[in-house]
From TrEMBL:
This is Uncharacterized protein. It comes from Streptomyces tirandamycinicus. It comes from the Bacteria.
């Protein structure tokens, strides 16, 4: 749409400037700004009002049902051995 029958228009002059720009590795690595990840933006928006309470990396409480798993497995094995 930028070109008419008579030749390039004013908007094409701007487009030609971008045609001459080379986006090589040096150009990309020289960029000073970096956009945060989507999760980082989501958490920042969620915590803007109030930050979460600190929690330990590993909880002191065991996961739910962890102590039942071995007893059940032994019971099943004994039942299969009886047959």
């Amino acid at each position: 749409m930028g070109r008419g029958a008579s030749g390039p228009t004013g908007s094409d002059a701007h487009g030609r400037a971008w045609d001459e720009t080379v986006l090589d590795d040096d150009f990309v690595r020289a960029a000073e700004t970096a956009e945060p990840s989507a999760r980082a933006r989501m958490l920042a928006a969620r915590w803007r009002g109030s930050a979460p309470e600190p929690q330990p990396w590993r909880s002191d409480e065991p996961p739910a049902g962890w102590f039942w798993s071995r007893a059940r497995a032994r019971r099943r094995r004994r039942w299969w051995r009886r047959s």
